[in-house]
Write a structure and sequence with these properties.
Distance between the termini: 27 Å
Radius of gyration: 24 Å
Number of helices: 23
Number of domains: 3
Strand content: 15-25%
Helix content: 25-40%
CATH architecture of the largest domain: 3-Layer(aba) Sandwich
Oligomer: single chain
């Protein structure tokens, strides 16, 4: 498991650093040693990295074969020569960095610009009580005082399945801002917090410019992560556009493709065609019927209950022999959130004789977005609304609303996928580099809502895989959005017709895509057993605007509520365990 912590009591591990009675621990499981911790004796500075800050291609010129801590050493050199804000702004990638400065008696924690790696803090107003960890449970286990449940956050999670930063399930535990640093100055006995970067909307209404710049930025980002120095590489390949873009543009022609599946279906055939067209080795990993159930509890603990374990697609692979051979794993994670408008206030276009189309238009601000929300009693709805009104202070701006919903990125509601990749795999995100972030800020809502700029930019760099249809959209990448919608609607009608006349029969759970139908999956007797063991059902009954909490009724109307209750029950049980330890 990959995590680091700065705690106020001696941890139960062999290796730790004692710095001003703060105990620093790092656990990093990675075949590549480029980011290993390094102590610079000359300058009396130690730099500890969680994640993968990325350097430019030209920076590898002085690399010596098998050299450890190469990237860490380069960053220390920059840290020494630059002002702290300049140092932070030059960083690329997804990470949290800890700088132990013995010379000036300071401890500095730095988060990446998008906030991909969460840092949980306690006692952050006092240097003596302040402690933090990238792992939620590790922090809780090291707090020797009572912590209090945050009822608003519990209600918020029950409604939406996520909690807005900086809040957590406990009043005393908060998360650090994205694009920020926090300095513990032990000489002056003070804490300094500062934002070095803020994501801001800077829209440019030049479609061709945006497409070209995004294409270039994506290519550079992929190149930085697929050089020979990154060892044996794999891309988790789906039948969409994001992962195939990475595979098609890898600097290493021997990059493998890995696809998960429940049964052979349309999407599997698409991924096979993509891999074959690129002459890539294609590994297929079959999920068993209990794939998600087997990692249910572990997932809730690993992702701190921030999102649902049904979004955790990879935890069960952490000991897989196929996956273990890779030094670098790349995914298309975050493309949907950053470039396809799913965090915008939008609604689908519809026609009476066709129904809803895969085309969106912008709408006025709405507190609910993306997924179905659970209705709570008025008391709790007001609590959540009051909190959100403080967060959304420019409701008239679509882009500002999107930015609030997205950043830090660890708060997005499907974050269990990314939390697991961070903690258990040699994973990296291609969307976390400065040039990609710059273009993200420049894309107007009208070009983002139907993924027009992104789709065209990706199509420009797909080469021979561009004409292989998108597994879900049923058409090739980057075509006119209206033409694409027609093709999609025709395919849906055709599919329904084939099922009606029994030419085609889909598995109700496995479906025809990458991920299973979780509404059907929820009918599993084991899920019902977990639900029946939910000890906090009285609390949930008090919050929910439902007369009767019947398992089958909830599945039909709001199946995710089942999982939200199971997650909350486990998290709140941890707090009871904490009380018993005191």
């Amino acid at each position: 498991m990959n995590y680091f912590s700065v705690l106020n009591k001696i941890p139960n591990v062999i290796n730790y650093i004692n710095f001003n009675n703060k105990y620093i621990t790092l656990n990093r499981n990675c075949n590549l040693k480029h980011w290993n911790s390094h102590f610079d004796k000359k300058n009396n500075i130690q730099l500890i990295i969680l994640g993968r800050p990325i350097i430019e291609v030209s920076d590898w010129e002085k690399f010596k074969k098998s050299e450890e801590s190469y990237i860490t050493k380069l960053l220390i050199e920059k840290y020494i020569n630059l002002q702290i804000d300049d140092f932070c702004n030059q960083l690329n990638g997804a990470f949290s960095i800890l700088v132990v400065d013995y010379k000036f008696n300071k401890l500095t924690i730095i988060t990446d610009k998008l906030g991909i790696y969460p840092i949980y803090t306690y006692g952050c107003d006092n240097i003596n009580s302040f402690q933090f960890s990238s792992n939620f449970k590790t922090l809780i286990d090291n707090i020797n005082k009572k912590i209090n449940e945050d009822i608003v956050s519990i209600a918020e999670f029950l409604k939406k399945g996520f909690i807005y930063h900086p809040n957590t399930f406990y009043k005393e535990i908060k998360t650090l801002d994205n694009g920020s640093y926090c300095i513990l100055d032990f000489k002056e006995k003070k804490i300094i917090k500062k934002k070095y970067f803020t994501v801001k909307a800077k829209p440019i209404y030049n479609f061709d410019y945006l497409v070209n710049e995004l294409s270039k930025a994506l290519l550079k980002s992929i190149e930085r992560r697929t050089l020979k120095y990154f060892g044996k590489k794999a891309v988790f390949l789906s039948g969409g556009s994001d992962s195939r873009m990475i595979l098609a543009n890898s600097s290493d022609q021997n990059t493998d493709a890995v696809t998960l599946y429940n049964q052979k279906n349309h999407e599997i055939e698409i991924t096979k065609n993509i891999a074959k067209s690129l002459n890539s080795k294609h590994e297929l990993i079959k999920r068993n019927d209990d794939y998600y159930l087997d990692s249910f509890d572990d997932s809730i603990e690993a992702n701190s209950g921030r999102s649902l374990p049904i979004d955790d697609h990879f935890l069960n692979l952490r000991n897989d022999k196929i996956i273990a051979k890779y030094d670098t794993i790349l995914t298309g994670c975050y493309a949907d959130w950053l470039f396809k408008g799913i965090a915008l206030d939008r609604t689908k276009l519809s026609f009476s004789f066709i129904g809803k189309l895969p085309l969106y238009r912008l709408r006025e601000f709405n507190y609910n977005f993306f997924a179905k929300r659970t209705q709570l009693k008025k008391k709790y709805e007001k609590m959540i609304r009051d909190r959100e009104d403080l967060i959304f202070n420019h409701k008239e701006s679509h882009l500002n609303n999107e930015i609030v919903r997205l950043f830090p990125l660890f708060q997005e509601e499907t974050s269990a996928t990314r939390m697991t990749l961070q903690q258990f795999f040699p994973w990296d995100s291609i969307f976390s580099d400065n040039d990609v972030i710059k273009i993200y800020q420049q894309i107007p809502a009208k070009y983002k809502i139907n993924s027009e700029v992104y789709d065209k930019a990706v199509a420009n760099i797909l080469n021979k895989t561009k004409n292989i249809p998108h597994a879900n959209k049923k058409h090739k990448i980057g075509i006119n959005k209206y033409f694409g919608a027609i093709i999609y609607v025709v395919s849906i009608i055709k599919n329904k017709l084939f099922k009606l006349i029994k030419i085609k029969k889909d598995n109700y759970i496995a479906g025809d895509g990458s991920w299973i139908n979780f509404k059907e999956y929820t009918k599993n007797d084991k899920i019902k057993t977990l639900w029946m063991k939910t000890q906090n059902i009285k609390l949930f009954k008090d919050m929910l605007d439902i007369d009767k909490i019947e398992f089958n009724d909830i599945i039909n109307n709001d199946y995710q509520l089942i999982y939200k209750c199971i997650v909350l029950n486990k998290i709140l049980s941890q707090e009871k365990e904490h009380k018993n330890k005191l």
